[in-house]
Amino acid sequence: GENVEQHPSTLSVQEGDSAVIKCTYSDSASNYFPWYKQELGKRPQLIIDIRSNVGEKKDQRIAVTLNKTAKHFSLHITETQPEDSAVYFCAASSEGYSTLTFGKGTMLLVSP
Amino acid sequence: DAGVIQSPRHEVTEMGQEVTLRCKPISGHNSLFWYRQTMMRGLELLIYFNNNVPIDDSGMPEDRFSAKMPNASFSTLKIQPSEPRDSAVYFCASTLTSGAYNEQFFGPGTRLTVL
């Protein structure tokens, strides 16, 4: 089955800095890669996703890049703000199948 | 739409007792997932239903865990007997599976504490 590794497990940055979270996956058939944000005590919520037919996708201050050859994908957050503080999860799936395999999560702390 | 609804939001029970968690998926969604979240193991998929049929239950930890989906608008996850190591947050999520991948919407979760 699929295995998703996520790094780092914790990340502390100053407000205004950029943050990068990286994930690798094992199943070459995976072609859908969502990122979820989970604030303390809340549910995970989708913030951005990418499919294997594109290499990069941006939505305001967040972007995701995908390297299918190397089987890794990354989340980039620019101009971080304290409200970006949360746990971020990457995941992988094969299109046509609904199940997601999640990484272990990255706790991002943005200090004012 | 109210989103995915889970009950109870918090459950405290004693070891050996039966626990039943409930989930109402988003109307129109045809896939439902039960996850367990702990600090040590992260977010684990327990079981996945499609059109009310269990498709993948390989994540169910042991026979003490069982899940049902009697209709498209209701699912239960039961633990009998419960043990302290079952303490976790249990999330239910739903999506519309239509060929292309669609976003999974999570419920608010049930925080289970087994004493």
Per-chain topology:
The complex is a heterodimer of chains A (112) and B (115).
Chain A: E1 4-7, E2 10-14, E3 19-25, E4 32-38, E5 45-51, E6 56-59, E7 62-67, E8 72-77, E9 86-92, E10 101-102, E11 106-111
Chain B: E1 5-7, E2 10-13, E3 19-24, E4 31-38, E5 42-50, E6 53-56, E7 65-71, E8 74-79, E9 88-95, E10 105-106, E11 110-114
Parallel strand pairs in B: 2-11
Antiparallel strand pairs in B: 1-3, 3-8, 4-5, 4-9, 5-6, 7-8, 9-10, 9-11
Could you say which overall geometry of chain A the principal axes of the C-alpha atoms support? Answer: globular
**Strands of chain B, total number:** 11
Spatial separation of the terminal alpha carbons of chain A: 41 Å
Residue share in helix of chain A: under 10%
* Count, helices of chain B: 0
Total helix count of chain A? Answer: 0
Supply the helix-strand structural class of chain A: mainly beta
What does this entry look like structurally?
Chain A has about 110 residues and is an all-beta fold. Helices cover about 0% and strands about 55% of the residues of chain A. Chain A contains no helices and eleven strands. Chain A has strands at about 5, 10-15, 20-25, 30-40, 45-50, 55-60, 60-65, 70-75, 85-90, 100, 105-110. In chain A, strands 2, 4, 5, 9, 10 and 11 form a six-stranded mixed sheet that branches. In chain A, strands 1-3-8-7-6 form a five-stranded antiparallel sheet, with no helix packed on it. In chain A, a hairpin with an 8-residue loop joins strand 9 and strand 10. The radius of gyration of chain A is 13 Å and the shape is globular. The termini of chain A are far apart. Chain B has about 120 residues and is mostly beta strands. Chain B is built from no helices and eleven strands. In chain B, strands 2, 4, 5, 6, 9, 10 and 11 form a seven-stranded mixed sheet that branches. In chain B, a hairpin with a 2-residue loop joins strand 5 and strand 6 (about 55). The N and C termini of chain B lie far apart (about 35 Å). The mean pLDDT of chain B is about 95. Classes of the chains: A mainly beta (about 110), B mainly beta (about 120). Chains A and B meet through strand 5 and strand 10 of A and strand 5 of B.
